Each structure stands twice: as C-alpha cells, then as structure tokens.
Amino acid sequence: MKHSIKFILSIIETVSIAGLMSLTGCKSGNKVAENADTLVLGNIITVDNERLFAEAMTIKDGYIQYVGSKENAMKFCDAKTKVLDYGTSSVYPGFMEGHCHGGGAGQLASTIKLNDAFSYEEYQKIIADYIQKNPDEKMYKISGWRVLGVPPTKQLLDEICPDKPVFGNALDGHSMLLNTKAFELLKLDDEFIKEFGEMVQMGEDGKPTGFVTEGAASKLMKALPVDIESAKKFLLTWQDFAISNGYVAACEAGVNLLNTAHEAYAELAKEGALKLRTRAYYCVQPNEANEQTVEEISRMSKEFNDEYYKIVGLKLFVDGVVESHTALLCDGYADDPDNKGMNRFPDSESLKALVLSAHRHGLPTHTHTIGDGAVKYMLDAIEYAKNTTGDNSIRDMLAHIELVKPEDIDRFAKYNVSALVSALWAPKNAITPFEQEVSLLGEERSVVPYQVINSFVKMGVNCAQHTDYPVSTAINVPLSIYCAVTRCLPGGDARNTRNPDEAINRLEALRELTINVAYLWNEEDHMGTLTPGKVANYVVYDRDFIHDDIESIPDAKLLHVVIDGEEAYSNAQ
C-alpha cells in the first residue's frame, strides 16, 4: 500500500513538473523552464501545507523555482548549477520578526548597558566606571535599567556626572532617566511639562525629578541628536545582528520614534545596502490624530515602497507597561486597586476617527496593547471603523497582548485582527520575575490570561510571533519555538511553566515565525514559505524543529542564512 501511494505521488509530481515547465509565472521570463542557478539539498521543511517536507529545491534569479524530490529537481539543473548539499541539516523559510525596533537595537552598541545589574547602586558603579574609561565623550547614553521599586531620579546620575548630559531608555522602553545637563540640552520647559502631565514625574520642590514615562519618553528619544550617517551605521549593525539570528525580514514598529531612522532606512535601501526586508509603521501620537497625518502617511507608503523598505501602516500606543502601572487594565492593579493604569489615547472618538481614516486610505494599524483594558479599547475602535466602511480586509494588528478577556479573542477573529504575541514571554520568570508580576496583577491574572497563544489559534486568529527587541532583550528563534511548545524555560523546571493549555504545536510555532508574519504585510504570496515563485530566503539549522527531541531545540545552531538566493551569513565549520 505504501508503495502504491508513493507511486501515485510520483505520478502527481511528474504531472506537476510538466505543468511547471509550461508556465511563465516567475519573476521575469520563463524561469521555471530554464536551468537553475542553485540546487539545494537537505531536510527541507517548507511550512507550506501543500508540501510540508521535501528533499530538494532549485533557485533561479533569487526566486524559488521548484520544491520536491531530488530526482525531479535534477531536471532543472545543468553543469553550471551550483549544488548546496546540507546533508541532514534542516532548511526552513527565513524567519521574520513581527514587532521590533531596529533603530534602537542598532544604537545599543553605543550605550552603557545596565541589563545585568539589579540595584541603583550597581547602576551608579557601572556608569561611573564607563565614564572614567571614556572621559572624552560629549554625552553618555544608558540602557537596560529597570524601575526597582521607587523610580530613580536625576540625582542618581548627577552624583556621577554633573557636567555632561546623561540619559537613556529603561529596559522596557517606556521610561527615560535624565540628569540635569540632559534636561538643559533638550530644553525641557514648562510647556513640555504641561503637555505630558503625569508622564513627567515631579518632586516635592515642584521640579521634574528626571524620570519620565510613555509619550514624554518617546518625544525625548525622538529629540536626541542622531545624524543620518550614524543612524545608517546603527541600522547596519542591527541588520547584521538580526540576520545572524536567522531573520530575513522585520517590522520596524514606529520608525519615526528615533530621530532620522526613516531617512536612514530609505537611503540604505536606495544604496542597495539593506538586505533585511523592513516593513515600517509610522507612529502617530494622540495630538497628531487627524486626517492630514493619515494623508501624509498614505503618501509616504506610496513613495517608500521598495522591496527592502516599505512604510505599510500606522503605529499607535494605547497604554504602557505593567511594571510602571501604565498598562491599561479592565480591573485595578493588585497593589493599587483604584488604579487601572494609563490610557495614552484617552479620546475614544479621536481614536475611532483615526482608525476609520486609516482604513479609508487602505492603511492598517499596528497598536501597542499590553493590558486587557487597552486590548478592549482598541478593538472597539477597529470594530467601529470596519462596521462603518463595511470592509473587513484591512489587516490591523495588536502587539504584546499580555492580558486579554476571552470575549475579545472572538473579536480578533470576527474583525480580521492579527495577534502579535511573544512565546519568549510565556514562561514564568522569562522576562519579569514572577513574584513581581503577582504583586502587580495578582496570582490569577499572572497565569490564566497571561500571554495566551493557543486560544487565538483555536479561534482562527492570525497569530504571529515577535520579540520586541531591544525593549525585550531576548531574540532567539529556537528558544521561541521551545517556549511556544512547552510554555517553560529550558531545563525542565516545572515551576517556570505557565498555563500549559496555551501551548501550541511545533508547526504552528514555525508558521507564527514565518508565513503568519508575511500575512501581516499582505505578502504571504511573496515570502514566508519555501514555495515556487517566492523569494529564495531560507535558513539552515542543525536541528529538525518538527521531529527532534524538544529539549534539544534550544541548543540548535544556525548554520546558514540565504537571502535572495545568496548567502548572507554562515556559521558552518
């Protein structure tokens, strides 16, 4: 019986080959009928439901020409065809990052990193040591610090460096700390304080303490002076890092949040230096929510529509983060029951009008929503816009979704809203100490509704993975797959497992890192699976993510990254 099935499949494939040879559907000319540039051999996992596994793939002019058996693949080859035989190693579609901040990631190389310190005293020592070793820098940037109980103040920095500006983002990306000189450099006056209100912490003396959050922090990051050449270097640093981690495409979630990042991306694409396909969302603050803003983004989406750099929609913030009590919750915080957090877009009518305008221009929204209150609030706006236009095709998405009410999962499916989640955040103690989460949210909210994934999948919601790098410092494809499947950190400590009912299978985890991300950008016919006609972007690992022992997956080694049929990274010995 098995031989009969194999014979039938062979006949079907032969007929398919004959059909392919008569087509002219590749990028230019009759490429399927021409000899291949490259023959790829290995354990090919296509993530294409029509043919999940294959032993060979051919590439012509940067596009996939054929996927299937080695015997049939040879029909596309001649003496000039390059053969890449990866043996027992596994070949996958290039992975895609659903939400990150490439500009910020690139700048990390020039900051004083505080990620591994856990007290304000340690912060001071690390900063002071760096300044002593680098006395000639005109200003100093810090990164990776945390709000440890009581928020820090400018005194922490002034004691170390009173004569030069010192500033930088917190680990969560939603707070900034500045010393007195940094305040002077950025000219933070009474008008700024009035504009952002509670986002600028004030001391008992009625003056800013140096600690700012959310919209105020975003505005300051954008105000920091970065020339285009420096921004281009930062982005190339990010590109190299992303590719070396198996990513071939990434979403820039708020390209205008950093000064000159958009201009730098555009120049790199024009120069042919951008290999990492970048899909950018342009951030709109509440005071910019008007028809003119949407029209300008619509114009930019037409102007900046390069294969490697595109502006594809609007980025919005509805709330902040749990650790700063700025995530918007349906119910109060466990340690402050009367506080439900911060709504960064408090005018619901303005938000609805903005989403409606975006949809009428064919632009999706990509929204930061941490708390279940923020999720509900944004879904209300999307529901209003889609019911008004009658068009359910716009692919809006909500990012992060640490908490969500069950009834709102149904609305994701009903209104074609994608869920951007992070399996890396799913285990207990993955990003934030579980005890801290419990102190802020309570035991029940810290487990059952936290970073649900399978609930979205079961409802038919397009669910895609993201890391939020460098706001979240973990970026690791094998670990993402492991955490999605186990809901635990490596090592088998059951105490780190969070709500195993929200685990997904391995194939779904791969889909959420590839084709489901392509769907966000309306590019599922262009990339995301190893399918004839799509761009030849693939990665090679020494592990089979579908079949190998799950405990071996976090140790998987990336061997090769190929973009447009050309090797972009190699780690093979």
Brief description of this entry?
The chain has 573 residues and is of the alpha/beta class. The chain contains 19 helices and 21 strands.
Descriptive report:
With 573 residues, this protein is α/β, with parallel strands linked by helices. The chain has 19 helices and 21 strands. The protein has helices at residues 2-21, 70-73, 102-107, 120-133, 154-158, 180-186, 190-196, 214-223, 228-243, 261-271, 291-303, 348-360, 372-389, 406-414, 434-441, 454-458, 477-486, 506-512, 515-520, and strands spanning 38-48, 51-60, 63-68, 82-93, 95-100, 112-113, 140-145, 166-170, 175-178, 200-202, 208-213, 247-253, 277-283, 309-317, 365-369, 397-400, 418-421, 463-465, 538-541, 558-563, 566-570. The strands form three sheets. Strands 5-12-13-14-15-16-17-18 form an eight-stranded parallel β-sheet. Strand 14, helix 12 (348-360) and strand 15 form a beta-alpha-beta unit. Helix 9 packs across helix 10 (261-271) and helix 12 (348-360) packs across helix 13. The chain is globular, with a radius of gyration of 25 Å. It starts with a helix and ends with a strand.
Oligomer: single chain
* Fraction in helix: 25-40%
Q: Got a strand count?
A: 21
Distance between the termini: 42 Å
Q: What structural category arises from helix and sheet content?
A: alpha/beta
The outline comes out as globular
Biggest sheet, strands in spatial order?
Answer: 5-12-13-14-15-16-17-18
* Contiguous helical run count: 19
Mean pLDDT score, rounded? 88
Q: Uncertain segments of ≥5 residues (pLDDT<50)?
A: 1-12, 21-30
How much is the radius of gyration in Å? 25 Å
| Most strands sheet | 8 strands, parallel
